[in-house]
Amino acid sequence: MILLSLFDASQFFSWFVENANYWFVFVFMVIESSFIPFPSEVVVPPAAYLACTDTGAGAGMNIYMVAVMATLGALVGAFINYYLALWIGRPVVYRFAESRLGHACLVNREKVEKAEAYFDKHGAVSTFVGRLIPAIRQLISIPAGISRMNVATFAIFTSLGALVWNSILALLGYWLSKTVTPDHLFEKVEEYNKYLTWAGYALALICVAYILWNAFKPKKTQSDKEV
Prior knowledge:
Blueprint: H1 9-19, H2 22-33, H3 44-53, H4 63-97, H5 100-104, H6 109-130, H7 141-146, H8 151-179, H9 185-216, H10 222-226
Helix pairs in contact: 2-4, 3-4, 3-8, 4-8, 6-8
């Protein structure tokens, strides 16, 4: 599991298990989905675990609401990145494209506009899949903001991707509630998070391979189309 630079993940995990509620799930998922590095794995699985055991801090919580609140938090955090990229990142990119240094790097306004158009066309799938890939989850909102991706489309596909991811984490918490005692919860979440991380990397490789295949596959000529 990724360790936070500000404090030990295991200490936060223990604190969260003792104090978990819907509000904390929402707030920490806002942080996780914004530009601040924070692992969702120390939030959703323990909250779902507590909801299923219905003891301590989890009494009265519902696993479905845990996934919903986590998804709402992820959407709010994604919008923070989106608008920061739109208001700050986009002007910087265009200034660079119109500068001498940008031209020296073979970057100009026309190429940036083409990149924006491409992301606007294919960004929905990229946004959805990006929410499932480690390290990309938080960053995928940035190109969406820079390219001025349609806000409604961004919200829908961000929510869908986040809901899938949070549902997987919630299911992990549910499964652990049937097999693990609270004393070993962090250890098991950390163990299974490694598998989820590798699955995310595999998904990323598949996406990259697909993009490269589409980029370099032989284009059909007019004679091929007629045949």
